[in-house]
Amino acid sequence: MTINISTHYNKHIKYLDQNTFVYKVKKAFYLLTNQEERLYEVGFSEGFSYAAKLLQQQPINDSKKKIIGVVYNNANLKTVNRIVNKVCAKYLVSKHDVFGKGRTRDIVRTRSILYNLLHEEYHVSISSIGRVFGQDHTTVLHSLNNKQNKSRYWGIECSIWQEYSELKSELLPITTF
Known about the structure:
By secondary structure, the chain is mainly α. The protein has 2 domains: 54 residues, no CATH class; 95 residues, DnaA protein, C-terminal DNA-binding domain (Chromosomal Replication Initiator Protein Dnaa, Chain: A, Orthogonal Bundle). It has 9 helices and no strands. It is elongated and about 75 Å long. 14% of the residues are buried.
């Protein structure tokens, strides 16, 4: 890595003048002697080099890689309606409750299945799923992460995995986006 540390340091100092948040730091910096200023620069460069080394040594976690080439769509409301009707009938949950704000166990479990079906099998974007269900996209993301991490309703010992695969096989031939 060939980065000129002094150049980077000088850019950093220029931004100190423009930032009012670091007024006290800037004031303290100007109180330093030339020797102390040089020590500060050396410390900054060593810290910068150390951080660059750490970033280079960090292993890539293959389990969290995103699939490249998958295009996520907006939700087709007609298809989403058919999927929701099928899942609600299977789990005996009202459609009103699934689209509402309720957080009982059966409703959250049903929503989790719906989110995962829509995102993984039909490639509906997370934000689009959130808009359809009246949820924040981070709520949808949390549900998807629960399945990926096999936590909460998606634990290894849970029957939800078999139910999910049955739903996939029932729904995929019928509906497409």
